[in-house]
Amino acid sequence: xxxxxxxxxxxxxxxxxxxxxxxxxxxxxxxxxxxxxxxxxxxxxxxxxxxxxxxxxxxxxxxxxxxxxxxxxxxxxxxxxxxxxxxxxxxxxxxxxxxxxxxxxxxxxxxxxxxxxxxxxxxxxxxxxxxxxxxxxxxxxxxxxxxxxxxxxxxxxxxxxx
Length: 162
Ligand code: HEC
Description:
This protein is of the alpha+beta class. It contains six helices and six strands; from the N terminus they run H-H-E-H-E-H-E-E-E-E-H-H. The protein has helices at residues 2-18, 34-37, 51-54, 68-75, 141-147, 150-153, and strands at residues 39-46, 61-66, 86-92, 102-110, 122-128, 134-138.
């Protein structure tokens, strides 16, 4: 029974890694020192995203920040954010988003036209906060499929409500 449980866990863990290239080879899209530089566009709240069913670690509270140049357009629900835009969703255990409980980031970075034209050229990542390990990267089908709803795609694939 124990072996079975271990096998099951292993099979659950594999898709996370196989979503993108070798994690060792991929650099985190979370910029160094972003916390002091980026603009908060969505404040601390309980997440409605079912993170625990798709990726580890589990979290239930989030904040969203963007590079300062993109903040206004994000808040205005722009249909198309500028190339180079970086959206960082911080994922916390703590309901008040205390920094010490930061577990991971999900990131969307707007690449030049042609990177993934069918999905507005976003590159997707999930990064673990403890060691900066990139858990998924690239044109990630699981991220894309869930964000692919009119309420999000009409705002350049952004799902977080004001
Ligand atoms: C099960 C559906 C679902 C999946 C899978 C999903 N997301 Fe999301 N995402 C959401 C929802 C809903 C929000 C809005 C935030 C909230 O309230 O939880 C969101 C918000 C975000 C945000 C904040 C910017 C914004 O407003 O959209 C980023 C960045 C993000 N997701 C990236 C990702 C990445 C990267 C992945 C894949 C690793 C991913 N998401 C997978 C549903 C999903």
